[in-house]
Structures are given as structure tokens and as C-alpha cells.
Amino acid sequence: MTNDAEQAEIKLVSLVAPVYNEEANLTDLVSRCVAVGEALDYEYELILVDDGSADSSAAMIQQAAEDHKGNVIGVLLNRNYGQHAAVMAGLAQSRGDVVVTLDADLQNPPEEIPKLLEKSVLGCDVVGSVRMNRKDTFFRRSASKIINKAVQKATGVMMTDYGCMLRAYHRNIVDAMLQCHERSTFIPVLANTFARQPCEVKVAHADRSQDETKYSLMSLINLQFDLLTSMTTFPLRLLSVMGGLLAMAGFAFSLVLLATRLLYGADWAGEGVFTVFAILFIFIGVQLLAMGLLGEYIGRIYHDVRARPRYFIHKVVGA
Ligand code: UDP
Ligand code: MG
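Above: inputs. Below: predicted complex with uridine-5'-diphosphate.
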């Protein structure tokens, strides 16, 4: 942590959990979160966002809001929008000086929340968490590893574990995220683009207590694309680079063919078949290059459409 870490003043803490068909976990979740909240030195609110569950989750959330009036708030979405959209809805509802997000399936133990808040108070505006002895399948863990490395490269923010949703954000970070109007978001990455003082804590990771993950392979793939496109338009530029390289290679090849033909006569080079290839490479290269150029424009349109805040002021002094 840097020297100019400022102690943040916290009055209210918001806990935000997206809920999708979690009826088996909800009772536990609410009682554990309420227990943690009551024990805090701050006021707290628990915001449960029902992401269009097909089971009795929505009804249970409404009941919890009745039972814990003033502390539990239910936000019910009309249909399933996905985890990150649901969290966004929760963030929009939250009023806390610090907002903590966590999964509703109890894989993130609510008892770890005070650990995150300790860091928040010390001035970390984004507190991430690293899952100790993660309880997921080997496939999920290896996939996460690769993705984490890619995210670190692309964002330049060294966080060990982008997949873990148990995170704490200062109010100004939450407000900045709410100003971003893109449809596909990956919240941990978005938050880090605004972070001034990110830090991490180690947290426990529990088995999925009840059923299976809510993510099918297809929705995992979709999520990775969201992650990639939310970070960078570099893949579009890759087209131009590849096209340029290919066109140059084709051109070099044709020069080599010309030279060998002059040296060894027309019999060489498969009666012109090689020449056709050389010309083909050049054309394909030029086509990719043109597509890459189109991509550049699309990338710019994409950046403008997202209308992210151009910069993010941490604080103005002496005004
Ligand atoms: N979730 C959601 N909408 C969805 C899928 C999941 O709100 O479309 C919630 C889910 O209820 C849970 C969290 O997102 O609270 C993480 O989901 P899950 O545990 O299935 O993901 P995993 O732990 O496998 O990453
Ligand atoms: Mg989970």
C-alpha cells in the first residue's frame, strides 16, 4: 500500500448477492449474512437480487425482506439477465459507503466479510480476494488460471483471482461503474479500471453446498467473451497485423520464386503452381488487412457506444 493511504469513513455497508435458483441456500445465506452484519461496527444492508429464478427464490427473498425490515432489501428482476447484470442492479440499489459483493451459493463464506472491510477502512478502494484451496473442478481451475494471466496482461492490474466475486468497493468506484453503459460487463475488471489502490486478502472457499454450478459450458464461454471484449479491442487489431504479415510473406515468397525461376528455368516450381500460391497469399493478406482496418473503425465505434467515463477523478483539493 502506498503512503498516502487515507482512512475511509464508513457508516453503512451494503452486501450485494445475485440469486439465481438458490432456494436451497437462501435461508442459510440470509441468516449468516445477518449475523455478520449485526456484528459489524457499521450499519448494514443486505441486497438480494433475484435474477429471474424459476424456483421459490423470489418468494423467499420477499419473505426475508419482511422478516428483517430495514436490513434486507430484495430486488426482483423480471427475467434472467446473468450474474453480472444482476450485481449491477444490486449496486444501483445500494447506498453503502462500502459495497461488498458475494455469491449467493455460499461458496464465499460471509464470515470473511469483516476481513475485506478492514482493508477498505485502511483506504483500499477495491479489495479483491484470493480463494484458498479452491473447491472447484480441475477444469474450472485451469481455465481460470489462463484467464487470470490474460486479464493481468490486458489490464495491467496484478490481481491473483479475478473470478472470485467476494469483493469490496468504495462508493466512488461503485458510482463510476454505474456510469458505464455497456451491456456486457465483467465487474471485477471494470472495477479495476477505476481502482486507485487495489489490494487483496485471502479468503476461504467452500464446496458448492447444494447443487451444481449455474453456469453451463456455453454460458462460461459467453462470459469469457464478455471479459475479453470488455477489456480490449486488441483482437480486432490482430487482424491487421496478421494480414500485413501474410501479405509480406506472400510477397517475399513470390520474389524467391522469381529468383529461382531465373536461375533454374521454368521447369522448377511445379509449373507455376507455386506462383499461384504466392499470389494467393498476397491477396489473402490484403483482405485481412482491409478487414483489420474495418475493425479499427468498429473498435472506435465500440468505445464510443460504451460511453465509459473518459477519466475518473479521485478527489479535487483546494477548490
Ligand atoms: N447467478 C445469477 N444469474 C445467473 C447465474 C448465476 O445471478 O444467470 C448467481 C448465482 O445465483 C450465484 C452466483 O451468480 O449467486 C454465482 O453463480 P455460480 O455459483 O453458479 O457460479 P460459479 O460458482 O460456478 O462460478
Ligand atoms: Mg459458485
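The chain has two domains: 12-214+308-317, 234-306.
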